[in-house]
Amino acid sequence: MHESARFGGHDAVARSRIGRLLRFYRGSDDSDKRRFLTQLNEAFGPDPQLIRVAIDAYLKADEQSTRESALESLRNHLDSPRLKLLGQFNLMPEGVEELVRMRADLQRIDDGCGGLAALDRDLMRLLASWFDVGFLELRRIGWNSSAALLEKLIRYEAVHEITSWSDLRNRLDSDRRCYAFFHPRMPEEPLIFIEVALLREVAASVQTILDESQPTLDPNAANVAVFYSISNTQPGLKGVSFGEFLIKRVVEQLQIEFPGLKIFSTLSPVPGFMEWLQRQDVEGLGRNLPPELDFIVSGDARTRASRLQAAIVGRQDRMAGRRIEDWTRRQCARYLLTERRGNAPLDPVGRFHFSNGASLARINWLADNSPRGLRQSAGLMVNYLYSLKEIEKNHKMYCDSGILAASRQIRRLLDG
Amino acid sequence: MHESARFGGHDAVARSRIGRLLRFYRGSDDSDKRRFLTQLNEAFGPDPQLIRVAIDAYLKADEQSTRESALESLRNHLDSPRLKLLGQFNLMPEGVEELVRMRADLQRIDDGCGGLAALDRDLMRLLASWFDVGFLELRRIGWNSSAALLEKLIRYEAVHEITSWSDLRNRLDSDRRCYAFFHPRMPEEPLIFIEVALLREVAASVQTILDESQPTLDPNAANVAVFYSISNTQPGLKGVSFGEFLIKRVVEQLQIEFPGLKIFSTLSPVPGFMEWLQRQDVEGLGRNLPPELDFIVSGDARTRASRLQAAIVGRQDRMAGRRIEDWTRRQCARYLLTERRGNAPLDPVGRFHFSNGASLARINWLADNSPRGLRQSAGLMVNYLYSLKEIEKNHKMYCDSGILAASRQIRRLLDG
Amino acid sequence: MHESARFGGHDAVARSRIGRLLRFYRGSDDSDKRRFLTQLNEAFGPDPQLIRVAIDAYLKADEQSTRESALESLRNHLDSPRLKLLGQFNLMPEGVEELVRMRADLQRIDDGCGGLAALDRDLMRLLASWFDVGFLELRRIGWNSSAALLEKLIRYEAVHEITSWSDLRNRLDSDRRCYAFFHPRMPEEPLIFIEVALLREVAASVQTILDESQPTLDPNAANVAVFYSISNTQPGLKGVSFGEFLIKRVVEQLQIEFPGLKIFSTLSPVPGFMEWLQRQDVEGLGRNLPPELDFIVSGDARTRASRLQAAIVGRQDRMAGRRIEDWTRRQCARYLLTERRGNAPLDPVGRFHFSNGASLARINWLADNSPRGLRQSAGLMVNYLYSLKEIEKNHKMYCDSGILAASRQIRRLLDG
Amino acid sequence: MHESARFGGHDAVARSRIGRLLRFYRGSDDSDKRRFLTQLNEAFGPDPQLIRVAIDAYLKADEQSTRESALESLRNHLDSPRLKLLGQFNLMPEGVEELVRMRADLQRIDDGCGGLAALDRDLMRLLASWFDVGFLELRRIGWNSSAALLEKLIRYEAVHEITSWSDLRNRLDSDRRCYAFFHPRMPEEPLIFIEVALLREVAASVQTILDESQPTLDPNAANVAVFYSISNTQPGLKGVSFGEFLIKRVVEQLQIEFPGLKIFSTLSPVPGFMEWLQRQDVEGLGRNLPPELDFIVSGDARTRASRLQAAIVGRQDRMAGRRIEDWTRRQCARYLLTERRGNAPLDPVGRFHFSNGASLARINWLADNSPRGLRQSAGLMVNYLYSLKEIEKNHKMYCDSGILAASRQIRRLLDG
Fold it and tell me: Which residue of D has its CA nearest to B164?
């Protein structure tokens, strides 16, 4: 029973201190919270003096063992006192959830200015260790889940709004699947969830998937699983990465349940496309520009954007329609495959899937004609393919050489 | 869905690497394991070159923001590559358990020599973060628990051996309680457990508690909860501290269930007492030495020890008995309250309870007459009192001034 | 292991026979079902010949032991062969549910004509024994229940329609309760459920209870539990009585959870009132008839009814309003307390509560102004009080002398 | 909500009456219990007067509808008032269990004399309806089951005594299975349980199965499932038949889990064999009698029996041994296949399995050398085969013509 006395007695003291602090924090308005967070950020960081001393000791240490302990000491002094304090939240029954909420507050209060960056980094480190993907539990969500949980899906869905309980029910039907990650300390809160349609072929339009009047497919007859929506739910966990792991766990799960599934694909938006398009200069846009889109090389950005949207959904003769479609697809392929920020693809969704080892398989015309779909993605949706045989190879090529995997069909759009 | 791509794709790759590594490790014998652990210890530590560069960058950074990122970079370089690797064990279904087992291997293989200390420190850091007390679940163990779990109690009990299923059943009767901490990733493994007897008065002998022929008390009529055994079960978690928190959670739990409980006390061994006694010189022992124990100031240590044990349990006239008891109690009080290693009490059990804020209430004569009880503790057992009103104060005095809390009765033994 | 061989081997044979029968039945349309049920009704009843023989044997038996076994044999021959067959449905996983459905079919197909009465009686006997109230499980239904279950509440609610998920959510809020009985063999099907509002005072109007904009009460501050809706869900279990037991179990449950509750009352419709009123003759109606309701003693029934409804909700000067209210209340008291069918009250809801030992406490004016409320109950709702002290006494008086318990206020309405 | 008022209010009254009755009964000693049961038996039976009246009405009824209701009325009068009273036990939380216990009391108190037969028959009818096999839940029992449950196996095992927790653990190992039926109202009580060994070939000796030192087989490599023990646990449910259904459910279960299983067989005692043998006359025994067993045709029964046991286990030359074995096997085949009580086999275990449709496959020599095994079964154990293809046919032949299925090997023993 010989317990180390290292933290002896501290826990009880810590708990009552954290308890008081939480009660104060919960009762605060935003300006009080900002003051509290600012103080944490400024007054409880690592001590430069102590770090300097530890560095000196390390630099002077000349044998293995003293160097080891100097290293240990340096490491300790780099960790801020606030990190220890925040870590003790875990002693409280709701402490983990409260800390997630506190970081969400910080994101809201600090947004962009970055005045609280050091505190944010400590919170993120702590939460990343607590929410290590190994501790998360994958659970299927269905019509048998509690109404309280399902209500949260409605609230959290970030990609394709759930418009009613009947829309939701359709998404949980026997030929649909929904999975989420949960943390043992927040058992009622889905951290991220993904919606999957089991189909006979890869979907080219999200409206078809969401159409409640479509007949239900026998899921055992499905060949294709389409991931058509994935939503992070906790702003306080921004930057803590679950999505890649969720997709892969779900692929494994589905393969066990439905051995007939051959293709795993997303149906994804291209959220940065239109914004990027509006920033392009004449030269970039002019190549192969059909006469119907002449306006695109002049006028102000917003007007051009809304005229483009009108042209996409508007009625025109078939030839003109084909020309508009053709030109837009090419621009999209160019945007997704060649535009970078540093080494990474510019489009955030593309960045996520390419780095996971997926490949861009298809660009679908008039695939999301919702107002948002048109405004952000010009109505396009794309399929990223998760081919289990290729994932590792694609991922390695992405990491080593920045190469993005794409189907021949897509590559041809670039060449044209 | 814009997931950070930071670890993009790494997880899947990491999982297959860890999988191979685990299969290799499981199939190894001890000499292979030693070689594997040694390589981890030597070849995957932090890189001194990179640390030096990061230190230089930090020392040169002159504004807040560059200093912050230099700090971050330094912190990253202090973490060894093996720490990242070991952290990825969590991706495997049994990874957490495997790592606990690996550290147990290391403890066994390395024991004492310390050649693997750096690796051990990394393992301990990782496990301490995974087994943060906030993630543990307190569960009551009873006769309704599974036989598979109860069998583990029999195996793990470290203080008072469980001799049969009927002994175990007695310890789980309606006037007994057993609680354990569990981790969500090792749901079948108790990490630490504590056994409690609900009584009318503080127990002076463990044999009375364990006597199966004693009548069962209506637990609602109990005034006293005696913690008579607490066992850590995982050598791989050595140094990760649960015990203090367990006691306090159990006290809270019991207070809710039995509002009639007034006193919470341990019945603890004094495991270092006899060994210490044998190391004492004549002067220390001689004070008030009764004639019956004259032998104690001469002869070799083992002989004196066994003669002392004989004297304690042997028959003698009442006066002699009282003298032996009196002298032994005094020595024990001296040992527990005045002997230190650094600031901390020498006795490991005492160290644990004093640092938790408990006070030494009573020394019980002939309280554990098992062979081990006599050999280690001269048959004595002591009561450490967990008085909820005093714990914080005691703990603070212990931390600030090294003062050990004890009852008046005990203090008087010292003065005598 | 010496099992009686009485049914030896029969079960396996029975199962495959029942299996075939169920597959046939499920695939049938109503005319096939009618034919099937008719055959069961006619060809598998008890055999009059055998009964006659058994009666003769009984009448001749002259000592105790032969009489006993003659009795046993007579009893067996009174049970129809179809009863044994139907009993074997229980061997199939879904057999219980199927039999409930079969009886619902029978009710629908046979309705009123009674041609299948003997079969219906056998089904009812069997189901009454399977659904003995002692086998039912009381479960609370809340917003944490599954959407699949909650959807059934929406479908089954028979008294006050649930108009949306948000209406439902309001009925499951923290100051509301919903309980249902379930059978172990139909774990997803509520058999009967009751909705309760926790309030500061006895509700006089159901619209207030259902108003989503009302603030939520701290349920610990409630004095009154109002049962405002109770719905049987299974037509196949018609005549199998759960309601009385449900109310009493819920009262017990609520008393444990909220010791502050002092009053348990229903808010009930008077579903037969208007129909009864239309059948009354001039003499009965004329007493104290206010001039505003003169029309009531002439014209055809439907016209009078709709004019009465108009008068109830219409605008009029205060004195006239009071006169209409007063007269209607008196008629209602007369209807509930004096009109009988045999010994039992004519109103079906009243019959249920009076026989349970409840007392009629209050008649509420303009308490349910929904179209159905006006059409059936003249907008009135009444409170039946479940006073735990009085229930047994009231019940006994009801059984022994047909006396109906009512408050002094109500009694005065009768005298006026 | 229009509940039938038939039992209105009765339930609450019934519950308090039953409650008082139960408290009285629980506190009674056996002589009080006998008095209580006797009164139930004598004073609360069906009323002959009322039966006579109902019979007269039935005999006089001349049309369908009056005959139907006369039948209903007659049926009601045949049911004793005590049946209704006992049925209300179900309203109490522990009522079902109490009634099972009451019948066990009756069995003990009344044993043999039969003075309480009428009451016993009513109890049996009620319990048979409550414990209808369709309501029972099949659960696997393993080392993960609670110690409290496993302790009951030790107590209840009726065929091959469980001598220790380690014996029990061996019976729950990965190549063993144990299944039991439970009733929803007695969730902690196994009603009947069966022990199964998964083997490479049909076992010829129970000691081999129970030998803890035998290596554990990979259950997926097993071809044969041997049912070596089946125990009813509740004397209060004597005559309520579960065993046949249990075996068949377990066979189904095992086939799903282990598709490699080809043979399902029992290893059963022949409990009436030795007793029967002692009653045989010289002629029956004398055929083919080996000289070593000459004593069997003279002397008193007990002496012959113990000499026979000695001869079976004793050392002798090989030829003599063969002769003894051969003669004993023939007698056993004769006993099992030709001795009847009425149409049913005399041996109770044989009766059970033959009527289930099993066939006698093998008689094993020296298969149970425990004292009981020798005393009852002459050390023999037999295998009854449950061949899924043959069960129905065998069962039909048994019912229709009293034919007992047996292997050719066994038949030859008869012919010899």
Answer: D165
